[in-house]
């Protein structure tokens, strides 16, 4: 996951504000879930957002490792998962992600 974050374009990385990216084993209610964004997307923040706890992007290690045996494929899927969850942080919904080819 660190590699996926390190490879972000500088402008994108600099735009991250009040967001934590963490790794957990698996989601308690959906063991097949690769990633999850929880928070208020940048496009929905206003002056009432100040002082809130950081948004959270969680990457779930176990389903990724169980689905992708090949290290290169695993690395690529982690990159895609991180980008998808960051897209939600930036206010891009699932429909638009599908249009962009991130199914």
What does the secondary structure layout of this molecule look like, with pairings?
Layout: H1 2-6, H2 10-14, E1 19-24, E2 35-38, E3 55-60, H3 61-67, H4 71-89, H5 94-99
Parallel strand pairs: 1-3
Antiparallel strand pairs: 2-3
Summarize the structure.
41% of the residues lie in helices and 16% in strands. The protein has one domain: 2-Layer Sandwich (Zincin-like).
State the share of residues found in helices, binned by percent. Answer: 40-55%
Flag low-confidence runs.
none
State which percent range the strand residues make up: 15-25%
Please, how many domains? 1
Rg on CA atoms, Å: 14 Å
CATH topology: Zincin-like
CATH architecture: 2-Layer Sandwich
Distance between the termini: 19 Å
Number of helical regions: 5
**Largest sheet properties:** 3 strands, mixed
The spatial strand order of the largest sheet comes to 1-3-2
CATH class: Alpha Beta
Give the overall average pLDDT: 88
List keywords for this structure.
5 helices, 103 residues, 3 strands, Zincin-like, alpha+beta, 3-stranded mixed sheet
Report on the structure:
It is a single chain. With 103 residues, the protein is of the alpha+beta class. A 3-stranded mixed sheet has the order 1-3-2. The protein is globular. The protein has helices at residues 2-6, 10-14, 61-67, 71-89, 94-99; strands at 19-24, 35-38, 55-60. The chain has a single domain (2-45, 52-99), classed as Zincin-like (2-Layer Sandwich), CATH 3.30.2010.
């Amino acid at each position: 996951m660190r590699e996926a974050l390190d490879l972000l374009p500088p402008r994108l990385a600099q735009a991250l504000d009040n967001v934590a990216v963490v790794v957990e084993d698996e989601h308690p209610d959906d063991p097949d879930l690769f990633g999850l964004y929880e928070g208020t997307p940048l496009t929905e923040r206003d002056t009432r957002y100040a002082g809130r706890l950081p948004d959270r992007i969680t990457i779930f290690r176990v389903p990724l490792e169980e689905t992708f045996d090949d290290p290169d494929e695993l690395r690529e899927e982690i990159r895609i998962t991180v980008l998808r969850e960051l897209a939600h942080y930036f206010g891009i919904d699932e429909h638009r992600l599908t249009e962009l080819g991130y199914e």
